[in-house]
Amino acid sequence: MDKINILIIEDTPEEATALQEVLEENNYNVVGIANTYQEALSLFYKLPIDIVIIDVFLDGNPDGITFAETISTIPDTLKPFVFLTSSIDRQIFERAKLTKPYSFLLKPFNGLETLYAIEMALEKFYDQSNVFINDHQDTIISECYLFIKKKNALNKVKISDIIYIDVEDRYCNIITKQEKFVIQISLGKIKELLCSKTFVQTHRKYIVNTNTIEKIILEDNLLILEGNHQVTFSGKYKETIKSFTILK
Amino acid sequence: MIKKIEINNINLNKLKFFCFLFLFNLNSFAQMNGINQEIKNVIKKNKKVDYLEKTYEFYKLNKWDSTLLYSGKLLNVTKRKDLLDLAHYFRGKSFLGKKIFNESLKEYNLISQEFYFYSYVQCSIGEIFLNQKEYKKALKHFTSVAKNDKTLSSKLEKSVLLHNIGLCYFHLKEFEKAENYLLKGTALQKKENDTLLLISSYMDMANLYYEQYKDNQAIPYFQKAYALSKKIKNFEIKQNAALNMAVVEENRKDLTKAMLYRKEYDTWKDSVNNQNKIWAVAETEKKYAISQKQKEIQLLESENKVKVSQRNGFVASSILFLLLFGTAFYFYNQKSKTNKIIEAQKEDLDALNATKDKLFSIVSHDLRSSVNMLKVTNTKLLKDIANRDYDALDKIVHKNAAITNSTFNLLENLLHWATLQTQQLYFHIESVDLYSVIQQIEYNYKPLFENKNLVFTNTIPKATLALADLNSLKIILRNLLDNAIKFSNENGTISVYIDDKNDAFYYLIIEDTGIGMDEETRTNLLKEGNLLNKKKNQKGIGTGLGLQLCKSMIQKNNGIFTIESIENSGTKMIIGLPKYKSNG
C-alpha cells in the first residue's frame, strides 16, 4: 500500500505548511507546494499526483480557478481536486462550479474537514459516491489504483500489483506481490470496475489477474500464479480458462 | 229650406209663392224633446253596450257621418231587438239629415212595429214622402199616427202632425180638408205660443186661401205672419213673410207697398247673404287659423326635433362624462392602492432599517467589549510573562481562545447573514453524511467541551444521508452547538442523535442538559423574523442573529426547525432534513 500523493497550490506559506502538516499527520504524501499558476502547472505534469488542493485566490487573482480550468481541458491527465477558499462570494463559486469542482473546502477548516473534502473529491471524481462514509465499503477503484480507507487513513494500491482476489462475503482479500489485506467491497462492484480483460473470475471465490498466471493445471482445476499462489477454478468457469489458454 | 213654387194661373195671372217652410227641421227639433228623454233612459239602462252612448252623443250633435259610423258598429255588436231598432232609428235620422231619403226610408222600414217610438218613425216616413211629393203615401202614414195619437206626447208634436196632414191635403187640392187640419194645427200652436211654427202655419194657411183665391181670408194670415216675423230673428222667415206681402200687394196693385215689401225682402235676403258671407269669411278665417295652426304644429315639430337632438346630445355627453368619471375614478383608485402598497413597503423598510441599525449597535458593542477584553488580558499576559507566571499564562490564553472563538462565530454569522440577505450565498444541495458532518464540527469544539467539562456524544449511524447544502448545514450546527454549550451547566451532556420517524425527514436532535427555557421564550424564538429579542439568561454575546440565521438556512434547505425545552433541565433543538434516496 502506498501513500496518496497530493499537490498543494497555495500562495500563503503558513497556510501551506499548516495544510501539509495536517495531511502528513494523516498519512498523505505532499509531493509539492506551488505558489503560482505557472509553477502549479509544471509541477502537475511533472509529478505523480493523485489529488490537487487548490487555493482559489493566488496573489489576489482567482488563478486557482484558471488552473482548474486548464487541467480540465485534458481529461486523460485530469486528477481530482479540492478548492480552498475563504470567500463565500457566489460569483467565484459559480465560476469554480463550471470547472466541475470535485470538492470545496471553506476556510477556516479543520483536519477532519480536509480529509472529508479529499475523500469527497475522490468519490465524485471516480463517480463512486458515498463509499468512505459507509461501514460496508472502503474502496474506490480507479483505472490504475485501488483507493482504500483504513481507519482514517487513505491509501492506494496499484491494480497491476494484484495477483488475485479472494472474495468472502462483503470482504475481499487482496493478494498483491508485496502484501495481503482485506477490503470491503461487493463482488459485483469489483467485477464491474476492474478491467475484464485483465481480471477474470475463475471460481465463485476468486478473481485472478491473468497477467500473473504462470501455470494452468487443468486436471486439478488449479492455477499457479506469480509468487507461487495457487488458485482453484471451478467447472463453471472452466470454459473461460480454456478460451483463455487458447488465446495465450 | 224654401221652395218657391210658381203657379201660373191663367185667369188671375197672379204670382203665387208657396212657402213650404218645411217643418222638417222644426219638426225634428220638436220631436227630439219627447223622444230624447226616452232614448236617454234606454241608454242609461244599457250603459255597458259598446258604441251606444257614443252614437247618441254624435246624434245629439247632429254629426250625421259619425253617427252613421258608430250606429253601424252598434248594429254589428248587439242582437237585442230594441237596441237594433234604436240603431236603425239613428241611421234613418242621419240619412234624413244628409237628405239621402231613399236610404233613410230603408232604415226606417227595418224598424219593427214594436219599437217604442214607432209613431215618430211613421211621422218621419210621412215627412220623407211629403218631401218626395208622394202626398198620398205621406197622408197614409200621417193619418195612421193621428189615429193612435196617444203616443205623441206633446201638443206641439200633434200640431205639427195636423199641419203636415193639412199640407198633404193642400197639395192634393182637397182644400177644405186642408183648411180644417191646418186650422186645428194653428190653433194648437197658438196655445203653445211657438212663434216660429205659428208663422209657418199662418203662411201655409195664407197660401191655402190664396190658392183658392180667397184673398180676403188669405191676406190677414199673411199680415199676421209678417207681423209675427218682425219679432223673430230668423232671416229666412222674415224674408219669406216680406216676399209674400210683396206679392200680395203687387196683386192688389198697390205697387208702392209692394216695393216697400220687396225692399224689405231684399234687405233680409242681403242679411241672409251677409250672413252667408260672414260664414264664408268665418270659413276662410277658420282655414287660415287651421293653416296657422298647421304652421305652429310644424314649428313645434321642428322644435321637438331640435329638442330630441338636444336630448340625445345631452344623453351622449352625460354617458361620456360618466365614462370619463369612471376611468378617472378607476385610475384614482389604482393610484391610491399603489400608494397604500408603497406606504406599507415604506413601513416595512423603516422597520427593517431600524432592526439593522439596532443590530449594528449591538454587534459593534459586543465586538468592542470582546476586543477590549482581549486588550486587557494581553497586558496581563505581558505582565505574567515578565513575572514568569506560567500557570496564569495558560489560563489567560485559554480564556482568550474562548473569546476569539465566540467573536469569530459572531463575525461568521454576520457575514453569512449578509450574504444570505443579498442572495450572494453559494448554495448547492447534495447528499450529506450527517455523521461525518457532526464529527467534523465536533473536532473544533473539543476544547470548548473540555472547558466546561461537557460530555459530547454523537450517536448518528454512519452513512445517514440527508439532502442539504454542506456549508450552510455546518453554520447551522455550529450555531446550535454554540447555544448548547452556552446554556449548559458544567459537567453537562450534549448529545446529537437522529430520530427517524420513517417519514421523508431525518430529525437531527441536539440535546443539552442545560438551563432550558420557558414557553414564552421558546415561541418567541420560533417566531418568524424575530431578530434581537431580549433574551433571559443573557450573559455573553448574543444578538439572536445566530438562531435567526439557523431558521433562514434550514428553511432554505427545505428543512424543519423546532425547539423542545424544559426549564432547568434541558433543551432539544430539532432539525428535520429531507432524506437522500440513492438511486443504487
From TrEMBL, chain A:
Taxonomic source organism: Flavobacterium cheongpyeongense
Superkingdom in the source lineage: Bacteria
Response regulatory domain span: 5-122
Transmembrane region(s): none
PANTHER family registered for this protein in UniProt: STAGE 0 SPORULATION PROTEIN A HOMOLOG (PTHR37299:SF1), TRANSCRIPTIONAL REGULATOR-RELATED (PTHR37299)
PROSITE patterns found in the cross-reference section: HTH_LYTTR (PS50930), RESPONSE_REGULATORY (PS50110)
GO molecular-function term, one example from the UniProt record: DNA binding
HTH LytTR-type domain residues: 146-243
PTM-bearing positions, type 4-aspartylphosphate: D55
Record's protein name: DNA-binding response regulator
Keywords, in A-Z order: DNA-binding, Phosphoprotein
Pfam families cross-referenced by the UniProt entry: LytTR, Response_reg
